[in-house]
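Contributing: when you submit paired examples, paste them exactly as shown. First protein:
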Amino acid sequence: MDVLNAFMKGLIWGTLFSVPLWLSFFGWIKIIMNFIK
């Protein structure tokens, strides 16, 4: 159970950290696309 608990905690933290990264990544793509056009 400890392994599963640690896995779930890691999954939640990974999601929390990856969401802002993805948002900033897509934001940069939109900015670059605007400059290209």
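Second protein:
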Amino acid sequence: MGPISLFDKSFLQSISLDEAVWFDRFFLPVACPIFFVETLADLGKDASKRGSAEFSVVKDIAQKFPEMGGSPCAFHVDIATQDLLGNHTPLDGRIPRSGGRPVPKGVVYELGPEERAFNRWQKGEFFEVEKIAAADWRKSLSELDLNKVASELRSIGIDGKSCKSLDQARDMALAVVSEKANAMSVLALSATFLHAPQHLHRPIIEAWKRDGRRPLNVYAPYAAHVVAVEVFFQFALAAHLIASNRPSNRTDIAYLFYLPFCTLFISSDNLHRRTAGLFMRADQEFVWGVDLKASLKTVNSHFIKLPEDVREQGVMSFAHAPPDGNIVAGLWGRHLRPGIRTEVKEPREPDPERNAELVKRLKEFSKQPTLPSHQALHEDDVEMMSIAHSVRRKRGSWWQVPKNMPDPEDDEQQ
């Protein structure tokens, strides 16, 4: 548990395996598709140039991938396209997750393809389909008709070359998505950025007209956010505020598409450090990964002093809150409700009967038949939600679950 935290590859790659355990324990990580694309990038290289070093890097990252909590996030293109069609996603920090199975009273989420892939990568198993997907997904980020974008921006009187600062580039981008007089042109621009399929163009326009032809930022707030980030990036490149000779910048800037779905954004990337705050809400915070890594090391040193018999009970049994006096504790204080650290440090007494009943209910809930899509509950009406996680019993120096917990199938799933 902890603040909902978007993270990038640079951060996860920088921390140790023990530090990864504490990141997983004291934060609610958001694994966005761009992280997956970055991690897969080496697997998508020309086979003649691909070697064991690339597989080793991916395997190392997979070992640190969050297991105990958090969630993968749906692809920004899918969310934004649905937004344009009138199916809106809340932008209040909740994580939109795809693949849920609607059942009576709620939704059941099984392990997603990303999580299953990371489980395999931990063992050094790389499926050919994932290597192909790596190249395809990265290609989808780079395939943008810049001449068409420039033409559409000029049609509404915008030229990014006049920008003098990143702040000005952001302001000009926000002005684009709030255009009233040229709202139709901005809608067309959004379809270009999102590579919206041709067969969806008419339904998008019709949905926008039914809604009253409002500016994009009012009609489809998330699509507007994505377009604003894209336009900002193009302006910053044109004005030489962001280097155009680094292809990785295109992938790095895409993390900003997922800012509405977190409280914290954790990164050790300088481009993120310069730009993320421009698109974050007042209740959000950018966390420099280098500083958080040092704090996680302090947390690890604190808990490693506990007696071995205590540590063998698993981190979830004794590490209820971060120790005082470090960045992790400060983030909890600023972004979780007041008093929660005191509450979790004083957990209720174990109640075997209550726990057994809860497990029974969850199993029964998860085994319910899938409802037809038209009978699925609205997210505000969901009473229960089941999310599957695959958790290794031990990771690095730490038992994540009790050492003596039976594992008859040896599949490390809890």
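If you have annotations for the second protein, write them as plain sentences, like these:
Strands lie at 4-7, 28-31, 71-72, 101-103, 106-109, 264-267, 285-288, 384-387, 394-395, 398-399.
Confidence is low (pLDDT under 50) at residues 46-50.
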